[in-house]
Write a structure and sequence with these properties.
5 strands, 162 residues, alpha+beta, hpI Integrase, Chain A, 2 domains, single chain, 42% helix, two-stranded antiparallel ribbon
Length: 162
């Protein structure tokens, strides 16, 4: 849940400490492990509740691989069985396969979900990129998964379409 609300990678949200929360519990600041970049974000009330429950330290983590196994099992039991076509290019050849949605879920899905949900909530992309640490807009935009219908619903509130 912390990953979903912060956009932090597993390696980062599993290493949070009380000193990462400042400004009377309003801001989370963390130096990312992958890029050594310092990112800051408003603390979502759900993250604050989790951290308070565990005295400022997230619950003890397991390995990323084991966490991914558990996430897949939870999603499978929850009925995420919709079949999804997945395509990628490997060695210059386009490969397509069909998987059930639960098979695709990993801890990194939380990071992507954060970016998409923040975008759909109207947070400016530049602000989201400051939180996720993305430097390139083209790479960042690959994180955003917005359907045509979601995009249209978002545009309904834009002054240009009113």
């Amino acid at each position: 849940m912390i990953g979903c609300y912060t956009g932090l990678r597993f390696s980062d949200f599993s290493e949070l400490h009380p000193e990462n929360i400042t400004h009377n519990g309003q801001i989370l600041t963390h130096k990312t492990q992958k890029t050594a970049e310092r990112v800051s974000m408003p603390v979502n009330r759900n993250v604050l509740a989790i951290l308070r429950k565990y005295e400022g330290i997230p619950p003890r983590t397991i390995s990323n691989q084991k966490m991914n196994d558990y996430l897949k099992e939870i999603c499978k039991r929850a009925g995420f069985t919709e079949r999804v076509e997945v395509a990628r290019t490997k060695g210059g050849m386009r490969q397509t396969r069909v998987l059930e949605k639960w098979e695709l879920v990993t801890t990194h899905t939380a990071r992507r979900s954060f970016a998409t949900n923040a975008f759909l909530a109207g947070v400016p992309p530049v602000s989201i990129m400051k939180i996720t640490g993305h430097k390139s807009e083209s790479v960042f935009l690959k994180y955003i998964k917005v359907s045509s219908e979601q995009n249209t619903l978002l545009l309904l509130s834009h002054t240009h379409f009113q």
